[in-house]
Write a structure and sequence with these properties.
This protein is mainly beta. It is 0% helix and 68% strand. It has a 17-stranded antiparallel β-sheet that branches.
Length: 224
């Protein structure tokens, strides 16, 4: 490992990280505890065993939590999803554009008009869609996912789909490029917090799911 490099001058949490393969940059999103808990992002440049950073940019001038991030390699954009405490905890997403060592943002878009937690993003490179998986606190904390389409500096969404009709937590997701499927993994609170996985198939702006499968009959903890 190289030397540790500080990218924030104060406390930071709710960190998420993605790689912008178009610009060869790392993008970190976080809650800046030293700046009113605002949602913030910063661009990092790796050189051998070190990393340097540009100037931090606020993407949400309100308290943000449960941040997730992914890179849309079709549009060469970063997408950040988060819980906007300044707007009743609604699930919100925003598109970022990296230029050199900086990042700029379009307008924020609400994807879930209810309190939303455990937000995690992945990119479906087969359908060129962003998938956001989350805990929908407005619907009994059910496991839910939604498909986003990036256009320029904005993002639009299809209809939300439930993947687990029970309370979930610690949601995470990835994309299987061999089978062109989305895989969501979570703790199923409705089933003793057992580790559970479900496969999703994207079609246009919708996502459908197979039957959830328990992969461990013990309580699981935080994944990311």
């Amino acid at each position: 490992a190289g030397s540790v490099v500080q990218f924030s001058s104060g406390n930071a949490d709710n960190l998420a990280i993605a790689f912008d393969s178009s610009n060869g940059k790392v993008v970190i999103s976080y809650r800046d505890r030293a700046n009113s808990n605002y949602g913030t992002a910063i661009v990092g440049t790796v050189s051998e065993t070190s990393i340097s950073f540009g100037t931090a940019v606020v993407f949400e001038s309100a308290n943000t939590t449960d941040t997730g991030i992914t890179f849309d390699s079709n549009n060469n954009k970063v997408v950040i999803g988060y819980r906007d405490i300044g707007n009743s905890g609604h699930g919100t997403a925003i598109v970022g554009t990296v230029s050199s060592t900086s990042i700029s943002f379009g307008s924020a878009v609400v994807f879930e008009s209810a309190s939303t937690t455990s937000i995690f993003l992945t990119f479906d490179s087969s359908n060129n869609k962003v998938i956001i998986a989350y805990e929908d606190n407005g619907n009994s904390s059910y496991g839910t996912a939604i498909v986003g389409t990036v256009s320029s500096t904005s993002i639009s969404f299809g209809s939300a789909a439930t993947f687990e009709s029970a309370e979930v937590r610690d949601v995470t997701a990835t994309f299987d490029t061999t089978n062109n499927k989305v895989l969501i993994v979570y703790a199923d609170v409705g089933n003793s917090n057992y580790g559970t996985a479900v496969v999703g198939t994207v079609s246009s702006t919708s996502i459908s799911f197979g039957t959830p499968v328990v992969y461990t009959g013990t309580e699981v903890g935080y994944f990311p």
